[in-house]
Specification:
The complex is a heterodimer.
Chain A (H helix, E strand, L loop, with lengths): L1 E2 L12 H8 E2 L5 E4 L13 E2 L6 H18 L2 E5 L12 E7 L9 H14 L6 E7 L3 E8 L2 H10 L9 H14 L4 E7 L19 E7 L8 E8 L6 E7 L5 E9 L2 E10 L4 E6 L7 E10 L9 E8 L3 E6 L6 H12 L5 E6 L13 E4 L7 H12 L3 E5 L31 E4 L29 E7 L4 E8 L2 E6 L16 H12 L6 E4 L4 E3 L9 E3 L5 E3 L7 E3 L4 E7 L2 E7 L13 H9 L20 E4 L1 H27 L4
Parallel strand pairs in A: 6-7, 6-9, 9-10, 18-19, 18-20, 20-21, 21-25, 26-32
Antiparallel strand pairs in A: 1-5, 2-4, 5-33, 7-8, 11-12, 12-15, 13-14, 13-16, 16-17, 17-26, 22-23, 23-24, 24-25, 27-30, 28-29, 28-31, 31-32
Helix pairs in contact in A: 2-10, 3-4, 6-8
Chain B lengths: L13 H4 L5 H15 L12 E6 L11 H7 L3 E5 L6 E7 L13 H18 L3 E7 L3 E8 L4 H11 L9 H10 L5 E6 L5 H14 L2 E8 L1 H4 L7 E5 L5 E4 L1 H5 L1 H19 L3 E6 L4 H15 L1
Parallel strand pairs in B: 3-4, 3-6, 6-7, 7-10
Antiparallel strand pairs in B: 1-2, 4-5, 8-9
Helix pairs in contact in B: 2-4, 4-5, 4-11, 6-7, 7-10
The chains are: A alpha+beta, B alpha/beta.
């Protein structure tokens, strides 16, 4: 008998519970005889831990139920001789599953994988059939199950590894459908480099849901050494570029990291990478060409897995933009802090105008976004002007201050203020929650070092998304869509009257994030995950074309779908409306770790399958030929149901006695 | 013990009587002690005081014919004394399992046996016919009422043999009584009466219609009347064997109310059936119970 998920045997520990419960007795040891129960009424029974276990039959039934339940989860199977009608001549279907993940392109692994698959075909019996499956991100069945070995060989020769990673648990789930519909007993020939990171969290997921022999053809050839650029990014504040080089090798090496911009080498650094360690390389900010720039880093010398030696980043050169800062005092600290912070962001190329009113010349529409340092200063006309500006697609950052503290509702947004608008006035309050999933706050650190003395307490509505809260729960930064535009509301001041945030190092990154968000772009840089979908509309295009990294058209005008699957590494270009945007797609860094599954785990995995013995290399002595496992699940479930019914009857009988009901 | 000898009152205590060897001795001790103690009591009928003459009728014991009157008048008259009525007493003794309950030396059944023996002895002493039915959920012993010599001895032995049995069925003894006893007389029922008062009423009423005078002695232990419990206990019914967890709070409050209501309901049912009801705490001396009986007999006789 074999247990497909033996870990569930831990469930047997649960039998201790009924054992303990059956020692719990409501029988009062103080037992007294009395003439009659005629005038007595039962009181609350006392629970005591009896020395002896009671109701042995009931206990046995309950333990039986738990044992069967645990066994049912372990998916036990017994060996049996298969029905001759289904396996008349010992014919089998060999499902040759080729690991098509990116790591299979390491060295000559793919050649050895083809050779291993051909070996399987060479050993096929006269009545056997074969079918080839290429497993990567998708599960591609390359042709039907056939006895035509030549056709299968031809199919094998056309298969190539992809750029995705393979997760073995998902593979076993996907292959279940093929096993279920197979007309012959299945031998699962898995040709793979058995990458340890591909193992699922639960080992039981590696078990086939239907009986099948598992033969693993390991195509690794000794220890594999690999170095990769596992991250590459640019600072939105300084524009500096940082690449991280990681080693999956036992020795430290020296590698050269080359930075190219639009195909031209603009930087080169040599870095010492420790054995199985990581080293960072920083390049100064680039002189960006107008529009999007193709920036990539590459490791040299290369290794046997060339795909992860390179990493891509699309960086947009910002157009000079103007920002309007509206403040009651043009010479005050708030406009000073905000304008200084914004103008520091060289990546955004912002220039700030400071005025005491939003009305005037140039009009609001000339500005990329507006900052109001104390929204309380706006009279009705000014508030309406800002409101119209936002509703027509403008963006605004509204802050509060002393002029806002007497308001009951905020101008522009109309958000209600609670009766006590100065919550947090008692003592210092730090920032509590930060929604780091929001683009404006991603990567902004050390915000909690700031102290807040006062804030206005806004009642958030369903239209508001609270991005930051103070430690006392008061919303600090809220986002609200208003017409076609968007408003960010900061419920404290932007000077140092109500907080010391402008004096903290986190202020500039926070303003950078907020400015990035208010500028309406996806940010200074543009990236997307390999395997994700890219929608034209997500980049702000009403329509357009998408070209993949090889320059082919991935999505044309008038295409039925707006989405393109990003299945290549490199730069995707979206063209439309006279402009273009680049999206960088990079290799999955997890695929760079080539460490194989250890031998013991591999043996356990093989043990999850059927081992007929004819074709499997390691045949256990206990497994005999022509025997296949038969699941005991249905039998266990029937037994379980019987025990549950019996337990109910016996339990009810005991209950009748306990209640004093005549049996 | 010779009749008429003085017996200290404390010897009538149930616990003292429990030390006596046999029931005959107990009965004699109780009755003689009781009669000694009731000197100048209203129950002078138990002396040999002359009351009246009555014409001899066939069946009368010739020993009571006054031969002097016969010599003078040539007529046969029977001499009658006060308290001598030649009635008949049938004792119905409950020997169910619940009667085996008792928290002291004397269980309800033992007390009932003392009482039954005493009543039997007292009746025999007055030349009353004495009968006995011992029952639980069926008839265990049955001695028809008779004044024949040695009858008392048979009745006392039958009482002595009574042991706690099983359940109680109050209909059984009354039905048997109704079948076999036809003349008027006294019926003393000794039981703890754990039964439905209305059902008991239905059983007793036919006897009343028959002209029987019925007295119900309800024997209860002090623990049944005013139970004292320090902690919750698992109470087992002595007749059914069923158990129940009972709290001390309930026993000291609600139970007392319910048993008092039951006794009251039993009392009313007895009155409605024309019977007397006497609640007996089995720690109380037998003489007060005998006094109740004699008052009852005097009233009915």
């Amino acid at each position: 008998m074999s247990l497909l998920a033996p870990a569930f045997l831990l469930g047997l520990l649960a039998v201790g519970l009924p054992w303990w419960l059956h020692r719990l007795s409501s029988d009062n040891p103080n037992k007294q005889k009395f003439s009659s129960l005629m005038f007595l009424e039962p009181g609350e029974p006392r629970r005591v831990l009896a020395k002896k276990v009671q109701y042995l039959l009931l206990l046995a039934l309950r333990i039986g139920v738990l044992v069967l339940l645990a066994l049912a989860f372990t998916e036990p199977a017994i060996w049996r001789t298969p029905d001759p009608a289904g396996d008349s001549d010992g014919a089998r279907l060999h499902l040759i599953v080729l690991d098509g993940s990116a790591s299979m392109s390491y060295g000559d692994r793919w050649d050895r994988a083809r050779a291993a698959a051909n070996d399987v075909l060479d050993d096929l019996g006269a009545d056997d059939r074969a079918q080839v499956v290429l497993a990567g991100r998708l599960f591609e069945v390359l042709g039907p199950a056939t006895a035509d070995i030549a056709a299968v060989r031809q199919t094998l020769n056309t298969a190539e590894p992809g750029v995705f990673r393979l997760e073995y648990g998902q593979l076993m789930r996907s292959i279940d459908g093929l096993i279920r519909t197979a007309e012959l007993p299945v031998v699962l020939d898995l040709v793979t480099d058995v990458q340890a990171p591909g193992l699922p969290t639960r080992f039981g997921e590696l078990a086939p849901r239907r009986p099948a022999e598992i033969v693993i053809h390991d195509v690794t050839d000794g220890a594999a050494e690999n170095w990769t650029v596992d991250s590459f990014g640019a600072s939105a504040v300084s524009g500096e570029l940082t690449a991280s080089v990681r080693s999956y090798a036992p020795d430290s090496v020296t590698r050269t990291v080359t930075l190219t911009q639009n195909g031209r080498t603009v930087g080169e650094e040599t870095v010492e990478v420790a054995a199985r360690g990581r080293a960072d390389v920083t390049f100064p900010a680039l002189e960006l060409a107008s529009g999007s720039n193709r920036v990539e880093v590459a490791l040299s010398p290369g290794d046997d897995l060339a795909r992860d030696d390179r990493r891509y980043l699309a960086i947009k050169r910002p157009e000079p933009r103007k920002v309007l800062i509206v403040s009651p005092d043009a010479e005050g600290r708030a406009p000073l802090y905000v304008s200084a912070a914004l103008e520091t962001l060289t990546t955004l190329a912002l220039t700030a105008d400071v005025r005491t009113t939003p009305l005037g010349d140039p009009p609001l529409l000339d500005y990329s976004f507006v900052v109001v340092t104390d929204v309380g200063l706006l009279d009705a006309a000014q508030a309406t002007a800002v409101q119209d500006y936002v509703q027509n697609g403008g963006r605004a950052l509204l802050a509060t201050g002393p002029r806002s503290s007497s308001l009951t509702a905020l101008p522009v947004t109309g958000q209600a203020l609670r009766t006590n608008p100065q919550m947090g006035a008692q003592g210092n309050v730090a920032i509590g929650e930060v929604d780091t999933t929001h683009p404006a706050l991603r990567g902004v650190e050390e915000l909690r070092a700031a102290n807040f003395y006062r804030s206005v307490n806004v009642e958030p509505s369903e239209a508001d998304r609270v991005l930051m809260r103070l430690a006392d729960g008061t919303p600090l930064l809220l986002e609200r869509a208003l017409g076609s535009g968007r408003v960010l509301l900061f419920t404290s001041s932007l000077d140092k009257e109500w907080n010391d945030l402008p004096l903290q190092p986190a202020f500039v990154p926070l303003m950078a994030g907020i400015a990035n968000e208010l500028l309406g772009g996806a940010g200074f840089t543009s990236e997307a995950d390999l395997g994700s979908a890219l929608a034209v509309r997500a980049l702000g295009f009403a329509g357009g074309q998408i070209f993949d990294p090889s320059g082919d058209k991935a999505l044309g005008l008038g295409a039925g779908s707006d989405d393109v699957l990003l299945d290549q590494v490199g730069f995707y270009e979206v063209v439309g409306g006279g402009t273009s945007e680049l999206v960088a797609v990079n290799f999955d860094a997890r695929e760079s770790d080539l460490a194989p599954v250890d031998a013991a785990t591999l043996e356990r995995w093989k043990g999850l399958g059927v081992r007929p013995g004819e074709t499997a290399a390691p045949v256990p002595a206990t497994a005999s030929a022509d025997r296949v496992p038969s699941s005991l699940g249905p039998l266990l479930v029937m037994l379980l149901l019987m025990l549950v019914v019996m337990e109910s009857l016996v339990g009810n009988w005991h209950l009748r006695i306990r209640r004093g009901v005549a049996a | 013990m010779p009749a008429g000898s003085a017996i200290p009152q404390h010897l009538l205590e149930p616990e003292t009587l429990a030390g006596l060897a046999n029931l005959d001795l107990v009965a004699r001790a109780v009755v003689n002690g009781f009669l000694t103690g009731m000197h100048r009591s209203p129950f002078f009928g138990f002396s040999q005081e002359f009351a009246e003459y009555r014409a001899y009728a066939e069946g009368d014991d010739p020993r009571f014919v006054d031969w002097n009157v016969y010599a003078r008048t040539d007529r046969t008259y029977i001499k009658r004394y006060i308290g001598e009525t030649n009635t008949r007493l049938v004792i119905l003794l409950d020997a169910s399992a619940s009667m085996g309950f008792g928290t002291g030396k004397v269980s309800k059944l033992l007390y009932g046996k003392f009482l039954a023996a005493t009543l039997a002895y007292l009746a025999a002493r007055q030349h009353d016919a004495v009968g006995l039915i011992v029952f639980d959920d069926k008839i265990r012993e049955h001695r028809r009422a008779s004044t024949r010599g040695g009858r008392l001895s048979g009745v006392l032995h039958a009482i002595d043999r009574a042991q706690p049995g099983t359940g109680t069925d109050m209909k059984i003894p009354f039905e048997r009584f109704h079948e076999v006893e036809h003349g008027r007389g006294l019926v003393a029922v000794i039981s703890d009466f754990y039964c439905d008062p209305d059902a008991l009423l239905k059983s007793v009423q036919p006897l009343a219609y028959q002209g029987q005078d019925v007295i119900l002695f309800q024997l209860l232990d002090p623990q049944e009347l005013k139970p004292v419990m320090k902690e919750s206990a698992l109470i087992e019914d002595m007749e059914s064997g069923q158990t129940m967890e009972v709290s001390p709070i309930y026993m000291s409050s609600k139970y007392r109310d319910r048993i008092a209501e039951h006794i009251e309901a039993l009392h009313k049912s007895a009155l409605r059936a024309g019977a007397d009801h006497r609640l007996v705490n089995i720690t109380e001396p037998l003489d007060s119970v005998l006094r109740s009986y004699l008052l009852f007999r005097q009233r009915r006789g």
